[in-house]
């Protein structure tokens, strides 16, 4: 007990909330700050971005999360970002996504992976990292709220924006970059590097147009294979990186709720439940990944000759199905086999 006079409590501010479903009866957990005779400090803290139109320039290849947040960070540091994105803006992407969904026609430059916002724009928007090099997570969450995301992501243990809200957030980030003097060029596929000895001075776009800058950031994601060929062509060092691959599995959401919440019917106050599984098989890690409660499975191919699947949920997570990736770790030793 705090042994406080309730009249002295001026505010109670929740700073973290989660559901603990490990026991038979799920528990709502919350961490809060109690203010005594003082005004609460808002956990939302927007950032003031600078105007950088005539400043030093850095070229960024790709407008997924890495490219967008690199641009915003450069603006904070007083540097002008110029983003080159092979895909289309977030609205124009919709037509190409319908072509995939209805007819199986894949535009190699505009699909679920390529285009403004990258793969996450139209496939979920979960906010988490397995990396131990986490950086300032709260800063990222605040920037997302500043650009239209729901404030709940600042306190949720497992924050999620949703594919219905993310496009608007991405558009707002684009507008901030432009308003601050940055540039964004869509339908701009990098086809070569401009090198001066060992220094990269610029980029060739769509075979003809030159862009020059003081530095270059490659934020191209995992499916821009042509960039790896370019790096190899110019004898730029490449290094293998461990990754994971596997399949996507789907279940009735009601089944997952029954297992996780130990009840035939989910309490209406509880969210659609999720899970996280991991084990070792023959000294190799096998684990669930990108679990989507109340979600759907979508086609995420970047060419017509491949089949790639992903999962997503809208903010309500109200689909009758749940899905998850089930993946196996692949490391450098496997390349030698």
Explain this structure to me?
This protein is α+β, with helices and mostly antiparallel strands. It has three domains: 6-36, no CATH class; 57-233, FAD/NAD(P)-binding domain (3-Layer(bba) Sandwich); 243-335, no CATH class. Helix content is 20%, strand content 29%. The protein has seven helices and 15 strands. The strands form five sheets. Strands 5-4-3-9 form a four-stranded parallel β-sheet, with helices on one face. Strands 10-15-12-11 form a four-stranded antiparallel β-sheet. Strand 11 and strand 12 (284-292) form a beta hairpin. Helix 1 runs parallel beside helix 4. The protein starts with 8 loop residues before the first strand and ends with a helix.
Sum up the structure in keywords.
3 domains, 4-stranded parallel sheet, 4-stranded antiparallel sheet, alpha+beta, 20% helix, 15 strands
> Given the C-alpha coordinates, what overall shape results?
globular
Low-confidence stretches are none
- By DSSP, the count of extended strands is 15
| Corresponding CATH architecture of the largest domain | 3-Layer(bba) Sandwich
CATH superfamily (homologous) name of the largest domain: FAD/NAD(P)-binding domain
Give the domain tally. Answer: 3
CATH topology type of the largest domain = FAD/NAD(P)-binding domain
Helix percentage: 10-25%
Can you write the helix and strand succession as a string?
EEEHEHHHEEEEEHEHEEEEEH
Report, as a whole number of angstroms, the end-to-end distance. Answer: 62 Å
Average pLDDT: 92
Derived structural class: alpha+beta
CATH class of the largest domain: Alpha Beta
For the largest beta-sheet, the strand count, sense and barrel status come to:
4 strands, parallel
Largest beta sheet: strand ordering: 5-4-3-9
The number of helical runs is: 7
Share of β-strand residues: 25-35%
Cα-atom radius of gyration:
23 Å
